[in-house]
Design a protein that fits this description.
The structure holds two protein chains of two kinds.
Chain A lengths: L8 H16 L11 H4 L2 E6 L5 E5 L9 H14 L5 E5 L12 H10 L1 E2 L33 E5 L7 E6 L5 E5 L3
Parallel strand pairs in A: 2-3, 4-7
Antiparallel strand pairs in A: 1-2, 5-6, 6-7
Chain B lengths: L7 H5 L31 H23 L8 H29 L5 H6 L10 H4 L5 H22 L5 H29 L3 H14 L11 H8 L10 H14 L25 H14 L6
Helix pairs in contact in B: 2-3, 2-9, 3-7, 6-7, 6-8, 6-10, 7-8
Classes of the chains: A alpha/beta, B mainly alpha.
Organism (chain B): Streptomyces humicola
EC number (chain B): 1.14.13.149
Enzyme class (chain B): oxidoreductase
Chain lengths: ~180, ~290
């Protein structure tokens, strides 16, 4: 149990490590096989000298309906782990990118049947170029591994995923979009 | 506001933190936990008015896009339009919250979305026009997304860090909104005789409302001068060039953008008759049960 009194520096480091482990293990409400750390939504965990834990999170999309849940989940997990003073900070800048999904996160997505994202598009200086034809992407089927796949819909049940179909095993699957 | 909200007890009761959420009024402030101090160099009154207008464009657009649910030609397009609407609703929530903070009135996003009448809304009229057919809605989405993307790209350098961050996130979303609308414009324009005709008609029907997007009102002028916002006249050429590129690929005839748009329109609180019924539907539950949260 951490009480709200001044903490010595070496002790503080171990508290920070423990708080970080707790926050990093919180599952995402929409993709519960991933933690918020895997998804790159958890941006940092700090502990003040008075023992207050501050966890920073960032939304994936502007309309992400799960932000309040994430805040609540992270705060609840930290309190349950014995940190009474918890603050959740929302970081809007820099904006989330699918490049922040960890290697472990990508592995878990594929294992769950969701094709992980490729590299996010890099923006050159100047106006965003227009794309008039469907973007060709090499997305491997998460079930059979075939690269004979096609996009069926760029939009699906959540903002972050597209619908794809495998022409080899004929199974439909979801693909986490590059953004 | 603290992080203890009504669902916390649910989360604590479960090892998995399995709290579920509901939709309606009484949302947690979308800027909760963000550093929302208005910098000294920023005029809060102008920032509020500027964010309100951009927030209203997104709010009204999101409502029109949501009307396509159960009515789109294909399930995939219905999902696409709803997803685009959700992004815009997210942008609206952030911008209306920022407007409320900056004006210092204590009005939150719900007060601004649900308790203002049509003449207090500042959205451009193009956003409020009834959906028409699919081609009309695509023509409108193409123009609005192209225009908003050009504005947001510049707003990433706003002197207000919250507006700059909202814009940086919005740029990514508006990029695929514009691509979606542009690809449909080409598919319909360069499609069958019927689809070409409808797409051309859609463009002609929205055109009287396009000039307004580039008219500089007093709020835009002051916001641009203070580095908070962008003078919409500054994006006119870029937007025109992009629309022309799409129209050429779609074999459509694009009328010229009016050279000197007259002041007036949605930014001045002058709306079409279509906005009242839209607001009535969107606001009725919140107004019937003003204290309700769920």
């Amino acid at each position: 149990m951490v009480t709200a009194q001044r903490v010595e520096a070496p002790h503080l480091e171990s508290i920070r490590t423990r708080a970080r482990r707790v926050a990093e293990a919180v599952p995402d409400p929409e993709l519960p096989m991933l933690t918020l750390a895997d998804l790159g939504v958890l941006r940092g965990v700090e502990v003040d000298a008075d023992g207050t834990v501050t966890a920073s999170i960032t939304p994936t999309y502007s309309g992400c309906p799960a932000m309040a849940e994430m805040r609540s989940d992270v705060a609840a997990r930290l309190r349950a782990a014995g940190f009474p003073e918890v603050r959740i900070r929302t970081v809007l800048d820099p904006p989330w990118t699918s490049d922040w999904i960890s290697a472990e996160g990508r592995r878990k997505l594929a294992e769950y049947g969701i094709a992980p994202p490729g590299p996010a598009p890099r923006r050159a200086v100047g106006p965003v170029p227009l794309t008039l034809s469907p973007t060709r992407r090499a997305v491997a089927c998460p079930r059979c591994g075939s690269s004979e796949t096609e996009e069926t819909s760029r939009f699906s049940a959540t903002s972050c995923k597209a619908l794809w179909r495998c022409r080899n095993c004929l199974e439909p699957f979801e693909h986490l979009k590059e953004i | 506001m603290t992080d203890d909200h009504v669902y916390l007890s649910l989360a604590e009761g479960s090892e998995d933190g399995d709290a579920r959420w509901a939709f309606g009024t009484g949302f947690e402030d979308p800027l909760h936990g963000v550093d929302t101090v208005v910098p000294e160099v920023v005029d809060g009154r102008i920032l509020a008015a500027y964010c309100l207008a951009l927030g209203d464009d997104a709010l009204v657009s999101a409502q029109r896009l949501a009307e396509w649910c159960t009515r789109a030609p294909e399930l995939e397009e219905e999902v696409a339009l709803a997803n685009i609407g959700l992004d815009l609703l997210g942008q609206a929530r952030l911008l209306l919250s920022r407007a409320g903070q900056a004006e210092g009135s204590g009005r939150d996003e719900d007060a601004l979305a649900y308790f203002r009448d049509a003449d207090a809304l500042r959205n451009v009229r193009l956003a409020e026009l009834p959906n028409g057919d699919f081609a009309f809605s695509i023509a409108r989405l193409l123009v609005l997304a192209t225009w908003r993307l050009a504005l947001f790209e510049r707003l990433t350098g706003s002197t207000d860090p919250v507006l700059a961050a909202v814009a940086a996130k919005g740029v990514k979303e508006l990029t695929y909104h514009r691509d979606y609308a542009a690809q449909w414009t080409v598919r319909l324009g360069d499609g069958t005789c019927e689809s070409h005709l409808r797409m051309q008609r859609g463009i002609e029907e929205i055109w009287p409302y396009v000039g307004e997007l580039f008219a500089t009102g007093p709020v835009e002028r002051e916001a641009a001068a203070g580095g908070i916002g962008v003078d919409p006249a500054a994006v006119r050429e870029e937007v025109g060039a992009t629309l022309l590129q799409v129209a050429d690929a779609a074999t459509l005839a694009l009328p010229a953008l009016p050279a000197d748009p007259h002041p007036g329109g949605g930014r001045w609180g002058e709306h079409t008759d279509a906005l009242g019924p839209l607001l009535a539907e969107m606001q009725s539950v919140a107004r019937a049960h003003p204290e309700a949260t769920w």
